[in-house]
Amino acid sequence: MAGDRLDEQAMALRAVKEFRDGMVVNLGVGIPTLCSLYVPPDLDVIFHSENGIIGFGPVVTDPAEADVDLVNASIQPVKPRPGMAIVDHAESFAIIRGGRIDITVLGAIQVSERGDLANHQLPGKAVGSLGGGMDLAFNAKRVIVLMTHTTKDGQPKIVRELTQPLTAPRCVQLIITDIAVVEVTPRGLLLRELVPGWTPEEVQALTAAPLQVPEDLKVMELL
User: Fold this and answer.
1) pTM score, whole prediction
2) From 176's CA, which of 80, 116, 191, 220 has a CA 20 to 30 Å away?
3) What are 2-19's pLDDT values in tens digits?
4) Catalytic residue, candidates 8, 50, 65, 161
5) What is the 3-state secondary structure (H, E, C) of the chain?
C-alpha cells in the first residue's frame, strides 16, 4: 500500500529547497504562492508577481493585518518588506521578458515527458487565461512545476503527450508533486525523490510516461 501524500504546505516547503540566496523568484497562482511562507530567515529571496510587486514577503494569515491593495498572483494579501517595489504591468513583464527571473514556480494541469507545459486552460472550459504564465514559461531561467501527481479522479498529470492545450513547449525542468520529485532530462523523466512510504513502482503506476530510476534515488526531505 502506498504511503501518505504531501499536503499543499509540505509541497511548497519542498519547492523552497530549490531557492538560493539572492534569487529572483516568481510564484504562480495556486500552491506556488504558499512558498513565500516557508523561506528560512537566513535566505534572501526576491519574490516577483506579474501584477507588479517585487520583493514582497509571506502571505498574510491574519485578516486584520491584510492590505487588500497588496496582493500576490493568487489575490492573497502579502506582507511588505523593506526595499519592496510596486511597478506597473509593463515594468513587471519587462523583468520577465528580460530574463531576470531565476526561477518561476508554476502550477500545471499536465506536463509531458519532454517538459511541455499545459496550465492556462482548465479542462472543459471554452477559454483559458493566457498571459503571465506563458511569458514565464518561455523566459524564466528555470521552470519548476508544483502540482498534485494526479487529478481529483486519479488520472495522471505527467503524461507522454499533452491532451490539454499547450502553454509552452519543452520549458519545465523539475516537477514537484505530492508523491515525488521528477527531473525532465533530454533522455526522459528521471525519478529523483520519493515521498516516504512510496516505491518507484507505485509512483510509476500513477504516471503516464516512463520514469527512469537512478541508483541515487532519494527519500524526500523537507528540512
Assistant:
1) 0.93
2) 80
3) 789 999 999 999 999 999
4) 50
5) CCCCCCCHHHHHHHHHCCCCCCCEEEECCCHHHHHHHCCCCCCCCEEEECCCEECCCCECCCHHHCCCCCECCCCCEECCCCCCEECCHHHHHHHHHCCCCCEEEECCCEEECCCCEECCCCCCCCCCCCCHHHHHHHHCCCEEEECCCECCCCCECEECCCCCCCCECCCCCEEECCCEEEEEECCEEEEEEECCCCCHHHHHHCCCCCEECCCCCEECCCC
